[in-house]
Design goal:
The structure is a single chain. By secondary structure, the chain is mainly alpha-helical. It folds into 2 domains: 51 residues, Orthogonal Bundle (Arc Repressor Mutant, subunit A), CATH 1.10.10; 123 residues, Tetracycline Repressor, domain 2 (Orthogonal Bundle). It is built from 10 helices and no strands. It is elongated and about 60 Å long.
Length: 193
């Protein structure tokens, strides 16, 4: 019979999330991860799989915790409220006190080599899904007459997610929450009334 785990699996995953968020996928070494998590390499492999699998688990945790505002934003009654909820939610998440600036999805993908293609693909799939979910909600707003005729929900969702990812880069480069709020206010002026 195997020995019981001597660490909290969820706490260690949360710690790995922060290491990846701060250093990116390739920038986070196995030594960085195991030292921060307080576990050995064999424990990491036995519990989480390889580094890539650990990153994907950390990315899922990030989406559940730090991006938990998205479902509530998509459920808002008007397109304007949806967009405000998405943009302000991301600005808050990207400048959260006590967390690395920016977004795990953006920070984790920067400077990835070809060897990290599976990680890049996982990040791309999640970004595409977020954009598709937003486009679907905006399509509903178009159908309900909440957005003017001729509004392309796919283009609008792409525009908004481009703003979100740009804000992440800005936050990782030192922009504070108020600076990102200024970006949000400017982006909101471009939303069709």
């Amino acid at each position: 019979m195997g020995r019981p785990k001597e660490f909290d699996v969820d706490d260690a995953l949360q710690t790995a999330l922060r290491v990846f968020w701060k250093k990116g996928f390739e920038g986070a070494s196995l030594t960085d991860l195991t030292e921060a998590m307080g576990i050995t390499r064999p424990s990491l492999y036995a519990t989480y799989g390889n580094k890539e699998q650990l990153f994907v688990k950390a990315l899922d945790r990030f989406r559940q915790t730090c991006l938990g505002f998205i479902p509530a934003a998509l459920a808002q009654p008007t397109a304007r409220q949806v967009v405000e909820g998405i943009l302000y939610g991301y600005a808050d998440a990207q400048t959260s006190k006590g967390e690395p600036p920016g977004s795990l999805g953006t920070n984790g993908a920067l400077v990835c080599s070809e060897a990290s293609d599976p990680v890049k693909l996982a990040l791309i799939r999640r970004r595409e899904q977020d954009e598709a979910d937003l486009a679907e909600r905006l399509r509903r707003a178009c159908d309900e007459g909440d957005l003017p005729p001729g509004t392309d929900p796919v283009d609008l969702a792409s525009y908004l997610m481009t703003i979100v990812h740009g804000m992440s880069v800005q936050a990782a480069s030192g922009a504070d929450r108020e600076r990102l709020y200024g970006v949000v206010r400017t982006a909101l002026r471009a939303i069709p009334a």
